[in-house]
Amino acid sequence: MMASMEFVKPLGKGSYGSVNLIKFTKHDDCSKPFYYAVKSSNAQDYDSLNNEFQILSKLRDCQGIMQTFGTSLWRGVDDHGNRVYSMSMEYAAGGSLSSFIKKRLLTDRMIRDFTRMILQGLVSIHGNGYVHCDLKPDNLLVFPRYEEAAVGGGGVMKEVSYELKLSDFGMSTEAGEESVFWEFDSPYLGTPLYMSPESVNYGVAEKSLDLWSLGCVVLEMYTGESPWALQDSHEILRHLLDGKSPEIPDSLPWDARQFLQTCFARNPVVRGSATGLLKHPFLLSDQKKVMVTGAGGRRKPVVAVLKSKDVMKKPLRVKIIPPKPPQFKKVVDRPLRLKIIPPKPPGCNLVFVQ
């Protein structure tokens, strides 16, 4: 069945192409239109786009990874008659994490959830032998999930949860390999603000680079500011070579500071692995991400939004326990004991997002 394509709006532009929102409509009155994000590059950037497509194809159905469609790039022409190559990707209606942060103040719980989702994506990437090399808020996409929940009086309330996925694999490199983007005059494998000290020294893509970048992203989610109060790449390079790391505010929760200190460890080995960081105390509390293992070892996430009443608003009950009656021996007067009984936990509703 044939389908028509309609340009909706531009979504972004990078070094190797642009991304537009495209509406696809099947020639069937019963079918609803569906939307794709389409990334296009000129013929001279074909290799970069095709490399990204090949990596995403290997990561298809992996958790925390933006999904692409089709078995190959498709070829077309632009408005000027130039040949272009394109790939279709799922559309993130919430935009990038960068724009998401600018619109609202993230809660501590949301930051922990997002950090967990990013790490789950890194586990997928590193498990397939790649390093992302350009992890930053601009390359993390937000997918809102809406569910309707019944409320008192017969009303309906919409619940929204968010899922975060990694995107833009244009600079991704096989772990242990030298990056083609590293140059002596510009020793960066990705965006300078998010690079690690060892990556600028040697130009080799190691998984520990992504963990340093993760620390920068987590810090930015808490502060709303760039990890470095610098914009000049040469100044950032001097700080990295001098053994400095982004400043961690004392106002952050203790376990969050410990997590960031691990990400910013000078020794890459101390940073551990994405799998290991998922077990850090910063992420072990208040988990709401449920893992479901499907066929072929692929894991699909089920996001659950937990709704419950505020327990602390219920008063505590006090039970007076008198002393036991004396048996055969004389028992002196004993003081009454008080037992504080906390309220029972409320019932919970789980709203699942497919």
From TrEMBL:
The keyword Mitochondrion does not apply. GO terms for molecular function: ATP binding; protein serine/threonine kinase activity. The keyword Transferase applies. Residues 5-283 form the Protein kinase domain. SUPFAM superfamilies: Protein kinase-like (PK-like). PROSITE patterns: PROTEIN_KINASE_ATP, PROTEIN_KINASE_DOM, PROTEIN_KINASE_ST. ATP binds at K39. Transmembrane segments: none annotated. One of its GO terms (biological process) is signal transduction. Pfam families: Pkinase (PF00069). Keywords: ATP-binding, Kinase, Nucleotide-binding, Serine/threonine-protein kinase, Transferase. Belongs to the protein kinase superfamily. PANTHER family: CCR4-NOT TRANSCRIPTIONAL COMPLEX SUBUNIT CAF120-RELATED, PROTEIN KINASE DOMAIN-CONTAINING PROTEIN. This is Mitogen-activated protein kinase kinase kinase 20-like. The gene is LOC108808697.
